[in-house]
Design goal:
It is globular, with a radius of gyration of 20 Å. It has a domain of 77 residues. The strands form two sheets. It has a three-stranded antiparallel sheet. Strands 1-2 form a two-stranded antiparallel ribbon. The chain is built from seven helices and five strands. 8% of the residues are buried. With 212 residues, it is mainly α. Helices cover 62% and strands 8% of the residues.
Length: 212
């Protein structure tokens, strides 16, 4: 991967070979298209993008505490409490007290939400399964490794960028300076990030399922 990327002396932008450029363009296009789909799903559910993202975490990883959800979503505990309130009001999530420790309260999706998810995402799953039928296991692993790396990269960049986001009014010069500061801070992160390419995910892809 690294050998296909070199620095352009003219403008300082990374220059990549055509295949890597195609991969990057496909990833960006896929993300934009999925954002559009996510927004449409959120409207059908009757919630906003942040709420939908939190509901997705609960659906993917199973019930969790508000603190765990806040950590996954990159939100403060106060903000995630408001999100859970909205999800409860919309009939998407519910708070459940741990029967063995009543001090613990979990957030889980409602039966309505599970039904909606199955109805909406089943066609997508069927399309993927059909399209991937002729793809070898080794190629699927390469695709998975790329997507997992892309997720780690986006999460890391989002965390760094949030540290440089203005909290109030900001002019164009200030925002440009903040962007440059973000770029400088990203250099060290990139060195560690690249080492993770091909690393197996720390969690199973679905609740209760182990990777083989």
């Amino acid at each position: 991967m690294n050998r296909n990327i070199r620095k352009s002396r003219e403008n300082g932008n990374p220059m990549v070979d055509p295949m890597v450029a195609r991969l990057i363009a496909a990833a960006r296009g896929s993300q934009n298209a999925y954002d559009m789909f996510d927004e449409a799903v959120g409207k059908l559910f009757g919630n906003n993008r942040t709420d939908a993202r939190c509901a997705d975490f609960v659906q993917r990883f199973g019930r969790m505490t508000a603190g765990e959800l806040a950590s996954r979503a990159g939100l403060s505990t106060g903000a995630v409490t408001t999100v859970i309130d909205r999800l409860e009001k919309a009939g998407i999530a519910q708070r459940v007290v741990d029967p063995t420790d009543r001090r613990k309260v979990y957030v889980e999706l409602t039966e309505f939400a599970h039904t909606m998810v199955n109805i909406i995402f089943e066609p997508m799953g069927m399309a993927f399964a059909e399209a991937m039928r002729g793809v070898s296991v080794s190629d699927l692993r390469v695709i998975s490794q790329y997507l997992e790396f892309s997720e780690r990269m986006s999460r890391g960049y989002a965390e760094i960028l949030s540290q440089h986001t203005p909290r109030g009014e900001s002019d164009l010069k200030d925002r440009l300076q903040r962007a440059r500061s973000f770029a400088r801070d990203s250099v060290k992160f990139n060195r560690e990030l690249v080492k993770t390419y091909g690393q197996e995910p720390s969690e199973p892809p679905e609740p209760g399922k182990k990777l083989k």
